[in-house]
Design goal:
heterotrimer; A mainly alpha (283); B alpha+beta (523); C mainly alpha (305); B: 523 residues; alpha+beta; Dipeptide-binding Protein, domain 1; Dipeptide-binding Protein, domain 3; eleven-stranded mixed beta sheet; 16 helices; C: 305 residues; mainly alpha; MetI-like fold
């Protein structure tokens, strides 16, 4: 009996499977990194620098080759999953909550609230990313926490703008207008009628933002404003490998592939969520 | 059903439109490709040099950045020329010079030399140039060369006396770094215009400067030393190392600077490219901050750290041999004052451990140190810093490595705000006086060490004019610095240049200066 | 509408001043530029002297007041490195950045709109799957990696385009594709998901039921309604392109504003950075205004009073 029920659930949510599978792989790598990684991610071996993956003639035991310090690329990428996922999820969560709340307030209440929030958006967008990163890193020092702060600070804007635009459009719809006419409280209208209707594009944005954030972390590393060198992240591994693209492609391509898997996973999941959320899309 | 079919039809149409667009784009690309690959490379005497940075000014008095001076130094010239092949300082705009008293140098200028605006080179121009640098309002970063000067006096049209506050043994070397600029031109046009469009006595004239893109120079046909071999030189600024290498491989650049040590090997296999390495003047080290209270106050600890680092592994593995190990002292053999008798601290982790144990550190009470390092500034700097950290960890030292961008790093360095050590490298003119008075002398800009015995010798050396005597004094300083170990002496950086084989008659210099004289382009 | 625009202008000036103030504080927290200006061996007096000339020995609030006073008169100062007025330095690189941004935007739209529309209409078809895959690929490649790969393939191996610089239109292709490629991914998916949503709406069904030609339904009703969130995203992307071209400009040695800003930040050339911030801020404000005005054009139900 139970098995058939489970089958039904799976059948109904078939579209979630690829996303869940991909993200599970990444999650498992992150959680069980010490068990899965064949080497210490920071163990240097200067006489084995930039060796290709074992299958391409590299030394045994280094399945995906070695980096410029002779460290095992596979182990670093497995450990990197921990930090990169943390950076991606935490900054997206912070930025998403802040951005949606501000965007909904701006779109729903309009006038002063709208003006304030939108000027805040303008203000945030007008501060160059690098300047903000440099300022935060100079004051607080380079660390994982501060990277997350920088990314959350630059990330909330997109949610605020999309949420506001959606609210502006939905506010005019009959079902909202009639709820207002019926005397429903603002909170009820927001939660019952508006939020569910503005979520689909926001979910799409959020899933995309996880990838963007992981990549932004790579840009910070590229500019020398990333996490400490002893902390492997996909972004920092790829950034460190950029001088070696023509000599040792695996150093930057393997973490790039890990980012691709994660982006694919979050997007598949996002697509599935969007269809779940929005009843009009079930054809 | 019906509607969906029509939707499908519309979509099919859209796909067709898209396919046509893509095809058109590809065709455009292909046409563009054909147009571009056939850049004619006749025997025209023109070369392109790609460096890492664009000059921020073409005024040779407003910069000490060698990449900028490579350009403005082809337009303006100094009094003398340091020939690295012979080690001699040769006449350039000055025909001769001699010390007429302990503190006065008399300089005779070459006669009949003209700036490209027609102005003649006279003793007034020398006086003007030196005073221009020294003027505090002008904010020249090159004041190090004028600081010891008390007065500049014009003796006659082609003779000038330079009087220093104290006897100055390195005066001829300074004369290779002070560029002579045209006084009338600058007075008429102003400093700002001069920094955009300088004129000088040099072998090349400025044609155009597109900021951050390129600076184009052409031969000065009236050059006093005869028309240069090259007709045209373009300097390009390509900051990213991989891209600079790509420009060389694609034949867009003929000489590129700062080839990475890893790329050098693969580039040398390219049949059109030759790799020219030259040991540079930059000495890499880990500097200990001894102005603060820390574990490194104990000399045994400092020596232990010197034994703990495997210099050979860094030089041979990380830098692929494009570096030279330092011989246990801050100077290399290119510098005047190098002591040949001193040898490097051998790699001896056991000795390091026992010295640390003597100083009271062990597995139960490990020594914990923070190491600061810049990134993107020196060859493989971040990698080397990580290797040093790893090797120190191997003898039981806990290392917290902080890699900073150059600006943040330098701020900490000059404010002496790092505790207790930093990995970086310094280069000066190749004379012990300059290195030691900036890096070692108590209280100097980059000194984080104080040793009265060393200070006394450094002061004595700078006032001594007799070169043999100076060499002996600096040799003693090297001995003190070896034993007292205020640094981990690492290696001398090798600068690597990539050159297209059609370029002949050029060789790199250890001071990163690019000499354009005598370069020819093969057909 | 006139009052709305006047209010926006007023807000714009305030935002610019606020941005300038934050930039001032952030920069001064990021360190003292004096040390990067003096040569090895400068004496403490000389360092002090330069600091005094630059006014850096004064308390921060005083420096701020002086700076803002001059800024309000339109004088943003002189570069510490170039010894030239900073606004000119930034503005002379503005056209190059705009050119690159325009190319990137064109690449993005040429790729994203057709891909997005077709994927939405032919939902779950093979075309849709491939387009989605491409979009995700674009979104998940680090810009620097993509740029270097393009240089190695099209600059070095095929020699179709120059590896770097900005001379001629061919030099714009690789940086334009690098910059546009990433944003194209997000935009493709946005176009697709918005259009799918709109296609499921009642009025589209009504339009179809009325027997309107499918093309009319798609272009006149569906695309127009899907445009709203897409315009938001494009506007957002555009301002990221301007501020965020720095990695691309760095990789391709492209002589734009962002590269100047990166150099200036590394050199702690504060006046240049501040001028860059002002120019970037004004540009972003103008873009946001245009985006907001486009809402009105696209959806007559939205009004600004």
């Amino acid at each position: 009996m139970k098995v058939t029920k489970l089958r039904k659930v799976i059948a109904r949510n078939k579209k979630a499977i690829p996303g869940l599978v991909l993200l599970s792989i990444v999650m498992v790598a992150a959680v069980f990194a010490p068990l899965l990684a064949p080497h210490d991610p920071n163990e240097q071996n200067t006489s084995l620098r930039l060796r290709p993956p074992a299958a391409l003639g590299g030394p045994d035991g280094f399945v995906l080759g070695t980096d410029p310090l002779g460290r095992d690329v596979l182990s670093r990428v497995i450990y990197g999953a921990r930090v990169s996922l943390l950076v991606g999820l935490v900054s997206v969560a912070i930025a998403g909550v802040v951005g949606v709340v501000l965007g909904v307030i701006a779109g729903y209440y309009g006038r002063v609230a709208d003006a304030i929030v939108m000027r805040l958006v303008d203000f945030q967008m007008a501060i160059p990313f690098l300047l903000l990163a440099l300022g935060v890193m100079a004051v607080l020092g380079p660390s994982l926490r501060n990277v997350i702060i920088v990314l959350a600070l630059t990330g909330w804007v997109v949610y605020a703008r999309v949420a506001r635009a959606q609210v502006l459009a939905i506010k005019q719809k009959e079902f909202v207008q009639s709820a207002v006419a019926a005397g429903a409280s603002d909170l009820r209208i927001l939660v019952r009628y508006i939020l569910p209707n503005i979520l689909p594009p926001l979910v799409v944005v959020a899933t995309v933002e996880v990838g963007r954030t992981i990549l932004a972390e790579a840009s910070l590393s590229f500019l020398g404003l990333g996490v400490e060198p002893s902390t492997p992240t996909w972004g920092s591994i790829a950034a460190d490998g950029r001088d070696y693209v023509s000599l040792a492609w695996w150093v930057s391509t393997v973490p790039g592939f890990a980012i691709l898997l994660t982006v694919l996973g979050t997007n598949f999941l996002g697509d599935w969520l969007r269809e779940k959320f929005d009843p009009t899309l079930r054809i | 059903m019906n509607t969906r079919d029509t939707a499908r039809e519309a979509a099919t149409k859209a796909v067709k439109v898209l396919a046509i667009t893509v095809a058109a784009l590809l065709a455009a690309l292909a046409v563009a490709g054909c147009g571009g690959s056939g850049v004619s490379k006749g025997p025209r005497q023109e070369i392109v040099i790609a460096q890492g940075t664009d000059p921020q000014t073409l005024d040779p008095h407003l910069t000490t950045v060698q990449q900028a001076l490579n350009i403005s130094g082809a337009i303006c010239e100094p009094l003398a020329y340091l020939n690295y092949k012979t080690g001699e300082i040769e006449p350039l705009l000055a025909e001769s010079w001699k010390a007429i008293t302990d503190t006065t140098w008399q300089v005779k200028l070459r006669e009949g030399v003209k700036f490209t605006n027609g102005e003649e080179l006279t003793a007034d121009a020398v006086k003007f140039s030196l005073e221009r640098i020294a003027n505090p309002e002008f904010k020249s970063p090159a004041t190090i060369y004028t600081r010891p000067i008390k007065s500049v006096d014009v003796v006659d049209r082609y003779t000038v006396n330079i009087t220093t506050k104290e006897p100055l043994g390195v005066m001829p070397l300074y004369m290779t770094r002070v560029y002579i600029v045209p006084p009338k031109y600058i007075q008429e046009k102003g400093d700002e215009n001069f920094s955009k469009a300088p004129v000088g006595t040099g072998p090349f004239k400025l044609v155009e400067w597109q900021k951050d893109e390129k600076v184009v120079l052409e031969a000065n046909p009236d050059y006093w030393g005869g028309k240069p071999t090259l007709d045209r030189v373009t300097f390009r600024a390509i900051p990213e190392t991989s891209t600079r290498m790509a420009a060389l491989k694609a034949g867009e650049a003929d000489i590129v600077t700062q080839v990475s040590t890893d790329e050098a090997e693969s580039l040398s296999k390219d049949e059109n490219i030759k790799i020219l390495p030259v040991p540079g003047l930059r000495v890499m080290f880990v500097q200990f901050n001894l102005t603060q209270d820390n574990a490194l106050k104990d000399r045994r600890v400092r020596q232990a750290l010197n034994y703990a680092v495997d210099k050979d592994a860094i030089v041979n593995d990380i830098l692929r041999g494009y570096a030279r190990k330092c011989e246990g002292q801050p100077l290399t053999k290119e510098y005047f004052g190098f002591n040949e008798e001193i040898k490097a601290y051998p790699y001896d982790p056991e000795k390091a451990k026992s010295l640390l144990a003597e100083a009271g550190y062990g597995p139960d009470n490990p020594l914990a140190l923070t190491l600061y390092a810049p990134q993107g500034r020196y060859n493989q700097d971040k990698e080397v810093a990580q290797v040093i950290a790893g090797q120190l960890e191997a003898v039981g030292v806990k290392v917290d490595l902080q890699v900073l961008d150059w600006g943040l790093f330098l701020n900490r360095l000059v404010a002496k705000d790092f505790n207790p050590m930093a990995f970086w490298g310094a280069a000066t003119e190749p004379d012990a006086d300059l290195w030691l008075s900036g890096m070692v002398y108590s209280g100097a800009a980059y000194s984080m060490y104080s040793n009265p015995a060393a200070d006394e010798l450094i002061l004595k050396g700078s006032k001594t004019v007799d070169q043999a005597e100076r060499a002996k004094i600096y040799g003693e300083v090297m001995r003190i610095l070896h034993d007292d170990a205020p640094y981990i002496y690492l290696y001398q950086q090798v600068d690597i240049y990539g050159v297209n084989k059609r370029v002949e008659g050029w060789s790199p210099r250890p001071d990163e200066q690019i000499d354009l004289k005598g370069i020819t382009v093969k057909g | 509408m006139a009052t709305y625009l006047a209010a926006r202008l007023g807000h714009g000036v305030l935002v610019t001043l606020a941005v300038l103030s934050v930039a001032f504080v952030l920069l001064h927290l990021a360190g003292d530029p004096t040390y990067l200006l003096v040569p090895v061996g400068a004496s403490p007096e000389e360092i002090q002297n330069i600091r005094h000339q630059l006014g850096l020995d004064q308390p921060l609030w005083k420096q701020y007041v002086n700076y803002m006073k001059r800024a309000l008169r339109g004088d943003l100062g002189t570069s510490l490195r170039y010894n030239q007025p900073v606004l000119g330095l930034v503005l002379e690189r503005f056209p190059a950045t705009m050119k690159l941004t325009a190319v990137a935007l064109a690449v993005m739209l040429i790729v994203a709109v057709p891909l997005g529309v077709v994927s939405a209409v032919k939902r779950n078809s093979a075309f849709d799957q491939i387009a989605t895959g491409l979009a995700l690929l674009g979104q998940s490649m680090p810009t620097f990696w993509f740029g270097i790969v393009l240089i190695l393939v099209f600059g070095v191996s095929l020699r179709w385009f120059p590896t770097s610089g900005s001379e001629g239109w061919r030099a714009l292709v690789l940086p334009g594709v690098t910059l546009g490629g990433y944003t194209a991914g997000l935009t493709t998916r946005m176009v697709r998901s918005c259009l799918i949503e709109v296609l499921g709406q009642d009025y589209i069904r009504t339009a179809r039921a009325k027997g309107l030609a499918e093309r009319m339904v798609l272009y006149k009703h569906a695309l127009r309604n899907a445009a709203l969130p897409v315009v938001t995203i494009v506007g957002y992307q555009l301002s990221t392109l301007i501020g965020g071209a720095l990695v691309t400009e760095q990789i391709f040695g492209y002589p734009g504003m962002a590269r100047l800003a990166v150099q200036a930040i590394n050199n702690r050339d504060f006046p240049v950075v501040q001028a860059f911030v002002v120019v970037a801020a004004v540009t972003v404000l103008v873009i946001n205004l245009v985006v907001d005005l486009m809402y009105v054009l696209l959806d007559p139900r939205i009004t600004y009073e």
